[in-house]
Amino acid sequence: MPLGDVSAFDRFARAYDRLMYAADPATLHAGLDLAERPVEVLLDVGGGSGRASRALDVPRPVVVDAARGMLREAQSHGLEAVQGDAARLPVGDESVDAVLVVDALHHMADVEGVVAAAHRALRPGGVLVIREFDPTTLRGRGIVAAERVVGFDSQFYAPGDLRRRVAAGGFTASIPDGGFGYTVAGVKPS
Ligand SMILES: C[S@@+](CC[C@H](N)C(=O)[O-])C[C@H]1O[C@@H](n2cnc3c(N)ncnc32)[C@H](O)[C@@H]1O
After folding, report:
1. Which of 1, 43, 115, 161 pairs with 183 at a CA distance of 20 to 30 A?
2. Whether pLDDT at 83 is above 70
3. 181: Cβ below 6 Å to ligand 1?
4. How many domains does the chain have?
5. 3-state secondary structure at position 187
6. pLDDT value at position 3?
7. Ligand 1 centre from 103 Cα, in Å?
8. How far apart (Å, rounded) are the C-alpha atoms in residues 5 and 108?
């Protein structure tokens, strides 16, 4: 299965943190706080350099990413980091409390596979939180165009479409934060 835009992130890993703004913990908590269990083990999937993990105060964040270069950056920040494909998470069944996918789903070719892998990995009451860009907004159209220009093979989803895909994967799905950058959250029923 193709791994989307991973090779580009391998090449640009060392510049990534210098080009990016810090993640906003409030927008991440809008989804994480829906978990029906304490969030102790969190998988930051497509987590790259660990930008989202570093914004949170979680006992055990683990970055999972397909790009070795990005994992090295995450490790340089003291984070636990494991190489893996988001659609085949390298963890046991029902072994984590939250799965976070921040600004990364649009780079992943197999969205249904990503949702299914998160469902398998989560404990009952755990939460899948996806932060994405709404391609129907003006700024979203700008992002879509910019990613095409740089040669990314990105696929963006409107919030309602992504919420339906998460619900179809067995989650109780909602949109706790809307706008250009939006959040879809899915709670795995207990
Ligand atoms: C734009 S970066 C976002 C990184 C981080 N989540 C953040 O917010 O800064 C997208 C990341 O997704 C990773 N990625 C893309 N496809 C992937 C896949 N199928 N499995 C795991 N990681 C993937 C890339 O290697 C890259 O590190």
Report:
1. 1
2. yes
3. no
4. 1
5. strand
6. 59
7. 7
8. 8
pTM value?
0.96
21: pLDDT strictly greater than 90: no
Helix (H, G, I), strand (E, B) or coil at 185: strand
Residue 107 CA, ligand 1 centroid: distance in Å:
7
**Dihedrals φ, ψ of 87, to 5°?**
-90, -5
Ligand 1 neighbourhood includes 111 CB (under 6 angstroms): no
Q: For position 1, what pLDDT does the model report?
A: 39
The label of the residue with tokens 């490790």 reads 75
Q: Which ligand 1 atom sits closest to the C-alpha of 109?
A: 19
Task: Give yes or no for residue 28 CB within 6 A of ligand 1.
Answer: no
pLDDT at 26 over 50: yes
Q: Please tell me what DSSP assigns to residue 85.
A: B
Enclosing domain of residue 112? 6-187
Residue 114 located in a structural domain: yes
**1 belongs to a structural domain:** no
Ligand 1 atom closest to Cα of 10? 25
Residue 4: per-residue pLDDT: 55
Which CATH number is 82's domain given? Answer: 3.40.50.150
Cα distances from 106 to residues 4, 75, 85, 95, 124, in angstroms, run 9, 24, 14, 25, 26
The model's pLDDT over 149-170, given as tens digits with 9 standing for 90+, comes to 988 989 999 999 999 999 999 9
Residue whose entry in the numeric block shows the structure tokens 């799965």: 99
